[in-house]
UniProtKB/TrEMBL annotation:
Keywords: Acyltransferase, Transferase. SUPFAM superfamilies: Acyl-CoA N-acyltransferases (Nat) (SSF55729). Residues 3-138 form the N-acetyltransferase domain. GO terms for molecular function: acyltransferase activity. The keyword Nucleotide-binding does not apply. Its EC number is 2.3.1.-. It comes from the Bacteria. The keyword Acyltransferase applies. Pfam families: Acetyltransf_10. It is an enzyme of class 2 (transferase). This is GNAT family N-acetyltransferase.
């Protein structure tokens, strides 16, 4: 059996949470907040998934305009399938869905920071984050 890749295939909240727990992303995602996790899936406008049989083993979950910018908000691969090219293929297939000039943008998990230069990303120090519990000052 080989890994099957799908674009915008349905993924249940349970499948998504299980995958995040089996990768290293659960520690930085609100996996105990089912409403949030369901909303993350429902409001993504591009997902590319990797399946081994009926088991979700990888996901690239993005928000994009398909022309200028694509924010790859989750790239998760089950620990048992890491270092087999699954993450790379998820990114390749994500790029194929985008317009010719659309940039792929992501924030790396600390443990994956050294992975991205290896596959062609350039570091950009201009990312800023405003957490929900912070207010924009006037």
């Amino acid at each position: 059996m080989k890994i099957e890749y799908k674009v915008n295939a349905p993924v249940s909240t349970d499948q998504f949470v299980e995958l995040l727990k089996a990768s290293n992303l659960a520690e930085r995602r609100p996996v105990d907040d089912r409403v949030c996790m369901a909303g993350m899936l429902a409001n993504s406008n591009l997902t590319v998934t990797a399946w081994w049989g009926g088991k979700l083993v990888g996901i690239a979950r993005s928000v994009t305009d398909f022309h200028y910018a694509c924010y790859l908000s989750d790239l998760a691969v089950h620990a048992d399938y890491q270092k087999c090219g699954v993450g790379r293929q998820l990114q390749v297939l994500t790029q194929r869905q985008l317009g010719a000039h659309c940039k792929l943008i992501l924030i790396a998990a600390p443990a994956a920071n050294d992975y991205y230069p290896h596959v062609g990303y350039q570091s950009n120090p201009r990312c800023w984050v405003l957490d929900r519990d912070q207010c924009i000052s006037r």
